[in-house]
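Fold this sequence, please.
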Amino acid sequence: MNTIPRSALLLGLAGLLPFLWGAATVLLPDLAFWGQMTLGGRFIGPYVQLFYGAIILSFMSGVLWGFATKATGQMATASYILSVIPALWAFFMTGGGPTTAAVNLIVGFLGLLLLDWHFWRLGLAPAWWMHLRGLLTAIVIISFLPLVF
């Protein structure tokens, strides 16, 4: 069964909205101005993307931790250790300005995709997991590109 459950797909896509909104406000100055006046500076451009990116990497650490609970013995220990890497990456690597933070978050999300694949390969994640994670990761990375270039 490789079909992504509808609720997981819809919630995953909805979770992309802050990334896409941030990218749109980087690319469209008029939208950024409207967002600044309406929502405040924290909810536009790189601010929303970088903050939300760190939150999502931390959230995904929790998801991986949940997968680790299905493992036993040394595989469980290794899985728990691996599961905290995305949150630690977000904590330590999102400083240094918006461009550096965006590059580090791109690397973090690519690393997360490798961890997703690892947990999936071990049978700890659902059969459909990589279909969802590949799609979401690609869109997240594309959304960070305006901050990098």
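The chain has one domain: 6-148. Residues 6-148 form one domain.
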